[in-house]
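Private note to self, pasted from the team thread so I don't lose it. Backbone tokens:
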């Protein structure tokens, strides 16, 4: 990049509360950056702004600002051609949530292995009852296959490896093995998941990964295996998942993401004791806003200096 951007005023889109409060992010940025103003705004109120930090795409953005930063790693809802045609830079937050999602994935793996979610359900009923002795199992004697070995997948792989698990991975490109026993190409997905007790999904949602985990993949999994999804809901064929659970093709699942969010009250996933449901919260942490502020501040400084930003998408 050669032309510096004038970034006098950057909007924080008023997106709600997840994954952090827009007002908190604004305050952190204002305290760290004396060169520009940060304001919380609606998508329709950007006339005096040069850039916007947002959770989701809005049609107003390409015509309103010079730079859009997505606070997520995923940007599948952003029409990149429209931004490119308008000459608008788009960056994302790859790397910010890697540690946070990795820790949440490990928490879900531990809950499934030890049945902690079942004990929590019993607590609500004041029921003192241990699981059958054959139900909990030792992670150090178990295996995991991590599907998607980017920032999120690398964070998960290193953590399950630290628990003593045998770990393999799946990706669409050659990657460092990250201490894994093997890395498979995505066309070998069924073979890759066949021997793993846990299949952890950390792949981005793209046209190629939509519905990637389908009935054939579930049929290839062990009948005592668990699916953990901390990527995007549409990566999994939900009807195929429910059929696999009903048929006993897999033992259960922990799902942080869903094809439709919030998960409808009518979804049968709510009522299953073999499924853990969390509300797309794997990346939440009291320091998420701090991590985002550092990235946005760094990119603002780079762009005003005429340098390429980190995590440029277009």
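Design output:
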């Amino acid at each position: 990049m050669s032309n510096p951007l004038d970034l006098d005023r950057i909007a924080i889109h008023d997106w709600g509360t997840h994954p952090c409060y827009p007002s908190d992010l604004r305050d952190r940025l204002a305290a760290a950056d004396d060169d520009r103003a940060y304001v919380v705004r609606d998508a329709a109120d950007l006339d005096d702004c040069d850039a916007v930090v947002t959770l989701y795409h809005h049609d107003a953005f390409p015509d309103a600002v010079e730079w859009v930063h997505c606070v997520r790693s995923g940007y599948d809802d952003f029409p990149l051609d429209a931004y490119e045609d308008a000459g608008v830079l788009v960056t994302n937050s790859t790397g910010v949530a890697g540690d946070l999602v990795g820790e949440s994935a490990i928490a879900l793996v531990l809950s499934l292995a030890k049945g902690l979610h079942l004990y929590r359900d019993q607590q609500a009923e004041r029921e003192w009852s241990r699981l059958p002795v054959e139900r909990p199992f030792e992670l150090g004697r178990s295996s995991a296959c991590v599907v998607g070995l980017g920032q999120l997948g690398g964070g998960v792989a290193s953590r399950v490896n630290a628990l003593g698990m045998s770990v393999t991975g799946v990706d669409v490109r050659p990657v460092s093995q990250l201490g894994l026993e093997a890395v498979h190409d995505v066309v070998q997905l069924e073979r890759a998941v066949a021997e793993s007790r846990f299949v952890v999904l950390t792949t981005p949602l793209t046209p190629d990964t939509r519905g990637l985990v389908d009935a054939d993949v579930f049929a290839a999994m062990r009948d005592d295996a668990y699916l953990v999804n901390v990527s995007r809901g549409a990566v999994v064929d939900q009807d195929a998942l429910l059929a696999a659970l009903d048929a006993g093709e897999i033992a259960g699942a922990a799902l942080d993401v869903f094809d439709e969010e919030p998960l409808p009250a009518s979804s049968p996933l709510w009522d299953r004791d073999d499924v853990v449901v969390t509300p797309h919260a794997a990346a939440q942490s009291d320091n998420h806003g701090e991590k985002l502020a550092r990235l946005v501040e760094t990119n603002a400084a780079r762009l005003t200096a005429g340098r390429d930003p980190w995590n440029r998408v277009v």
